[in-house]
Amino acid sequence: MKLEYTEGQQAFRAEVRVWLAAHMPAQSLDSFDTREGFEQHRAWERTLSTAGFSAVTWPKVLGGRGCDLIEWLIFEEEYWRADAPLRVNQNGVFLLAPTLMEYGSEEQKQRFLPRMARADDIWAQGWSEPGAGSDMAAIRCKAVRDGDDYVINGQKIWSTRAVFADWLFGLFRTDPASERHRGLSFILLPLKLPGIEVRPIRQLDGLPGFAEIFFDDVRVPVANRMGEEGAGWQVAMSTAGFERGLMLRSPARFQRTAQKLVELYKRHQAEADADPSIRDAVVKSWMGAEAYALATYRIASRLAAGGKIGAEASMNKIYWSELDLLMHETALRILGARAELLPTAPDAGDVNGWLDGFLFAQAGPIYAGTNEIQRNIIAERMLGMPRA
Amino acid sequence: MKFTFEPEQFAFRDAVRRFLVVEAVPEVLRAFWETQSGRSPEMRAKVTDQGLTALSVPEAFGGMGLNDLDWILILQELGYHGIPESLSDSAYLGVDILRNLPDGVALKKEWLERIAAGKARIAVGHPVNPFVADAAIADLLLLWHDDEVHATTPDAVKLTLQPSLDQSRRLYRVEWQPSAATRVCDAATGAPIWRDACDRAALSVASQLRGLAKRMLDLGVDYSAQRKQFGRPVGSFQALKHHLANVAVAVEFAGPVIHRAAYSMAHGHPQRAAHVSHARVVAGEAAWLAARNSMQAHGAMGYTWETDLQMFMKHAWALDSAWGTRAFHKSRVTAAVLADGMALGPGATFI
Lengths: 388, 351
Fold this sequence. Notes:
The structure holds 2 protein chains of 2 kinds.
Chain A: H1 7-23, H2 35-49, H3 69-81, H4 90-103, H5 106-117, E1 123-126, E2 142-146, E3 149-160, E4 167-173, E5 184-190, E6 196-201, E7 210-221, E8 225-226, H6 232-237, H7 240-247, H8 251-267, H9 269-272, H10 276-304, H11 312-335, H12 354-363, H13 371-382
Parallel strand pairs in A: 1-4
Antiparallel strand pairs in A: 2-3, 3-7, 4-5, 5-8, 6-7
Chain B: H1 7-23, H2 26-33, H3 41-49, H4 68-80, H5 86-99, H6 106-116, E1 122-125, E2 132-133, E3 140-145, E4 148-152, E5 158-162, E6 171-175, E7 183-185, H7 187-226, E8 228-229, E9 232-233, H8 238-266, H9 272-298, H10 309-319, H11 326-338
Parallel strand pairs in B: 1-3
Antiparallel strand pairs in B: 2-6, 3-4, 4-7, 5-6, 8-9
Helix pairs in contact in B: 1-4, 4-7, 5-6, 5-7, 7-8, 7-9, 7-10, 8-9, 9-10, 9-11
């Protein structure tokens, strides 16, 4: 065990810090759930990509920086420390790309990854359907083979970023006679194809952060399938799953929130101390963010040593989503009567950002597999408890 | 940056685990409850054969010269197997105080060598605990007095037994008179020794509590797989799965916090006290959650004397106030987090 950074790691941190200071947008960007904000964020991703920073763990030839996971953690720490913009292409870079690296053909990698790194293509995901949420194996959206194409009919829902995104990845039923996990294929498709209708869904903050997608005889080349036909479930659930579990939410994000919460508490300590449980929650928040960072460094070190993780990703998901709720709830309790004020309110003061974060934190225990599903996975796959 | 243990550290842990699986079965430990001392010379001899009493004794005094990182995995195993804390008190804590005494102190060589050879039990008294564990059968008592270190023997002090809920514990009120004869070192020398010793003791408790939590989790999982109701194992019901999954999450995330605290102790990190207290808080929470939820998984059987769960629950409830209550430790974390100039936020973890 050695809990000090190497000189190379320190130099990388310094490089990222200097670069971010020089390139950060002068003004904070609009929400990427607006048309203007989406394009502002795309431009930022392009700027990042000029230094290989839009996908630091990818090989350089594909547009990344060839970083290992410790360097990724360092990058994320500097990124969140700088309050840099949210990552509009995170579905692509952090969720799809690891799977593409493992299951994509060489042609597919060359075709999709460099464009993804430059944000030429911004990706949305298409997993859930009206009848397939937590029970994802109930997917019914059909992709029927017709010559060199699949013809897609059906519906997806809760598709994050789909309103403004360029491409979609998801699971489709390529064997109409199949049931459950069999007969599904992992398909990538442009969202501008004829026969696709994207209907925005307004989320809790009023913005169209996700969408329903309707497919009416949409033709997609078979070359857009990743992995074998019918092997989509395995591709989606593959070992790349641990990278998703690891990389979707880096600890730096929560450490930044915890730090701001401590500062907020200190500014309002006189009023907040009327309820000692607030102070307790502030300290618990810091401990939680610190523990999550330590746990992630440990996983990164274990992977570097050739280790594997699986269901730990489910533990991470529960941990950060509940931590995020705790932190934002605590912030709102500290802000009291001003907590409800929107940033546009003249007397909003230092409430800025907490309300947005609070609303988004509500979704944490639901998206990316509800925490109930994660607990089932922990109980059955890690603890070996019997299936129902 | 490498946050993993070395293969040999895991190998040693595994060897100790194999030993404890055979030698420290619950029936054996229950038999010790019935004895006056609660301790077994035969068991101590076997533990000595495993090298546990010599682990952190410097090589110059007949030990292996290992540090907190080597201990930390072992301590979790001791917790998991419900080994009374007297081993840690002698071989980790007692050794720590003795080895940090100036070389001129006569007592140092003699007792370190005896501990390494498995021929001495040490009990340690500090005001953070109202009582001294295993004082009656200690060969040497190391006692705090105004930051000085004092050494004496049980026959020179007045001991009053305080029966505990935990049948493995032997707690005593110790009344004694400090004197020039008992004083081993002055307060200037003793203050840093006591500071680190108390932190090591708390770290030991944290790792034992995590081991206890893991054991209670395993017992709950086992029981819920065997017990059938409504025609199926109760462990197949989602409510029980989620109870135990919550314990698994708490146990999992306590690990790196404890291991970082051990690293900080081994390397004299300026924030080591806060790191230890963080570890102590999360380990205590994990252990109490494990007790509650495993009890629930056991149903009425969990409330019986017969079921082994009680051994680990009671040990966890008791240990959670040893070497600083959770309140004490949380207050230390709070003070550190709220201190002016404390490095918080992304990138501050390993400063």
